[in-house]
Amino acid sequence: MPKEILAKAGFLVVTASTVPGDLSGKKNLTTAHVDITLDKVNSADYQGLMIVGGQRTFWYDETVLRLCREFHAAGKLVAAICISGAIPAQAGLLRGRECTVFPDPAAIEDIQKNGAVYVHQPVVVSGNIITADGPAAAEEFGQALVEFLSR
To answer: Membrane spanning segments where (predicted)?
Structure first.
């Protein structure tokens, strides 16, 4: 849903992952076409980074952590939803700052281990970092992304 909300607002959404081509999500309910592999993403070419996920696929992934740091250093959007909400904290971007994540005890512990302050809210905006706790917050998350990018 966030991708559709961004597209409806006029933003071009480019999908990146570790492998090119078409991907299927959990239980094959969600599909996506990968436009570019993560190793080829240049943060200078984009307004922001949005990490989605219901799995820990990109937890502590060095390429994703590097991209988070690059986007953040440039004052660009760094956004994450569901269990991926832990990734900006893993990148060291949320020390002493509030964020949210899917309310999984291991995810909350990981956020806190990395110095972030967990807040049990659907969406948390902390400067240029926006986190959301899961699918139920997808619409609010998408609207927060549009609001940030429209400034």
So the answer is: none
* Euclidean distance between CA atoms 23 and 28, whole angstroms: 9
Range of the domain at 40: 2-149
- The residues, ordered by sequence, that sit 6+ positions from 56 with a Cβ below 8 Å of its Cβ are 83
pTM value is 0.94
User: What is the tens place of the pLDDT at every residue in 39-83?
Assistant: 999 999 999 999 997 688 899 999 999 999 999 999 999 999 999
28: CATH? 3.40.50.880
Measured CA to CA, the distance from residue 100 to residue 85 in angstroms comes to: 6
**What are the angstrom distances between the C-alpha of 148 and each of 2, 21, 29?**
13, 29, 29
